[in-house]
Design goal:
The chain is α+β, with helices and mostly antiparallel strands and 146 residues long. Helices cover 37% and strands 23% of the residues. The protein has a domain of 100 residues.
Length: 146
């Protein structure tokens, strides 16, 4: 016990409650990282495959196995009527309203897409879209509260 005598001992409980604003921001940042990887692969003419880890249980044998499976990633950009590339920013499956009545960013050409995605990622990191993300999250919560 002599090793513990020099230490300050306290009764403390860990808090597992993270700030929900930060959690939602990190969710969007993860999705933006996948969109950037998808855009870069598209520019190189390659396909992008995101993976996720799944635990598969065999009830008969009583064993479990960890497997890696492909995850479908939908692209957030599209071509408008004018032929320009436009980008929706999403929270889950909801499109964020970036400004009053405006829900997409006009990128221009496909070569500029990665730089625009990086700029949107910087805006999310700075917290500029927190109110829009909160509104989308509240809409999802309200839908499932019924």
């Amino acid at each position: 016990m002599s090793a513990l005598t020099g230490l300050k001992l306290v009764a403390a409980k860990p808090t597992n409650k993270a700030n929900p604003v930060i959690q939602r921001r990190h969710k969007v940042l993860g999705q933006l990282s996948e969109q950037i990887a998808l855009a870069e692969a598209s520019q190189r003419g390659e396909s992008y495959v995101s993976t996720r880890t799944v635990v598969v249980r065999d009830k008969a044998a009583g064993t479990s196995q960890v497997q890696t499976r492909a995850k479908r990633v939908k692209q957030w950009w599209f071509f408008s009527e004018t032929g320009r590339v436009c980008l929706h920013v999403r929270y889950g499956n909801r499109v964020l309203e970036l400004a009053k009545g405006k829900n997409s960013v006009e990128v221009g050409t496909a070569k500029e897409l990665v730089t625009v995605l990086e700029a949107v990622k910087a805006a999310v990191t700075a917290g500029e879209l927190d109110t829009q993300i909160e509104a989308a999250s509240a809409a999802v919560r309200a839908r499932f509260a019924k």
